[in-house]
Amino acid sequence: MTNQDIKDASAELWQNSIPHISIDSVVFGFLNNQLNVLLLKIKEEENWILPGGYLQKNEGIDDAAKRILYERSGADKIFLNHFGVFGDLNRSEGYFKDYPDDLWHKQRFITIGYYALVDQTQVNPIPDHFTDCCEWKPVHPIPNMVMDHEIIIKKALSTLREHISHKPIGYNLLPEAFTLPELQGLYEAILGEKLNRGNFYRKMMRYDILIKLDEQRRGGAYKAPDLYKFDEDKYKKALGGLNW
Amino acid sequence: MTNQDIKDASAELWQNSIPHISIDSVVFGFLNNQLNVLLLKIKEEENWILPGGYLQKNEGIDDAAKRILYERSGADKIFLNHFGVFGDLNRSEGYFKDYPDDLWHKQRFITIGYYALVDQTQVNPIPDHFTDCCEWKPVHPIPNMVMDHEIIIKKALSTLREHISHKPIGYNLLPEAFTLPELQGLYEAILGEKLNRGNFYRKMMRYDILIKLDEQRRGGAYKAPDLYKFDEDKYKKALGGLNW
């Protein structure tokens, strides 16, 4: 990114965007039993940055979040959930300190955080004009990030963990028929730790959202593991949560 | 509120505050088995408004939320949780349409929502300069609100309901020793519906956060009801939530 590139961008942003508000998205992907996060690297920059941008004068925040994620990463049709706002003093102000004071990017920004958990094979990351790369990076450990973006990822991750502590997860992330060890792998990837197999099995059964299939997966030398699918109705009901 | 009052406020706000960002707090109070919300009525205005205000240039958003709630209602030392951001187009822009275009309040605002659930007897609402009254109003049904403030209250309420669907509640809201019907009353006030007594009892016992006391409450003509207190350690552990 040249000096002139960012100054041109600044002029256009002052024209069309709402000052002081930015939007950052934390998109988690699950592949091969590993939890990843979609990150960008700005040209000539060492550290990683979240796909983020600015709210236009003529759009609502949810629409802006979708547009920004698409423009910066090529990721489309992703259901984003708001999970937090980051508005401490000096969270981003120092990052553009070498630029003139009227640069758009040098303002104080309060950033609105969105997150998603997606099937990574459905997203093909594409770098934009300002970035050298747009990639899936492992979450454990979080790569070196600019500004407070590590804090933002950690908060998104704790929101995701909170979510799986009381709601089911896995639909659209696992194959239609899956084994319990595969489901356990998803939970372990999100939690970043190994779980006890017996405990996991009992808690899952208590959830009562799985249907055991008659068929078994073939191919291994050992006893074929049982296959399950989600009971769609019960899964959706459990997603609703409120059940007093 | 006179025309001059609001114009004076506008000039000062342009000086000291961050444009386009506002903060609104939804403070729920529990008293006599009823769920209430802390609301203001602006002078010469029919409908109610949430205690809200603007972020100063030199403060973080969490500090701003506390300051604003205190200034507008007198409510102090309240632990506020962020629960949502409201940034649709035209959510607030029409409200000051009769004022000049350079009025601070006439901007597009993206509002950051905070909520709390408090022991109502600990808060003594005091109206500020712009308001006629600051009062606890019942949540069921929500009174007539300005702008999108009814949507904001509903979202705060659904966050609170979500919370009680998987974490304990009641500490600091009930007397130290309480009966199960009293605890059930708190849940019913938040949910806005009657619960089946047997189901509630079984779910509470499964939570394993209550200690049955030896003493019973005296005074009634009927059999004295059993008294319980929270098991503080187990309550706090359950608050943590993550338990895979």
From TrEMBL, chains A, B:
Domain of life: Bacteria
InterPro entries per the UniProt record, alphabetical: NUDIX_hydrolase-like_dom_sf, NUDIX_hydrolase_dom, WH-like_DNA-bd_sf, WH_DNA-bd_sf, WHD_NrtR
Sequence ranges assigned to domain Nudix hydrolase in this UniProt record: 22-159
PROSITE patterns the UniProt entry points to: NUDIX
Listed name of the protein: DNA mismatch repair protein MutT
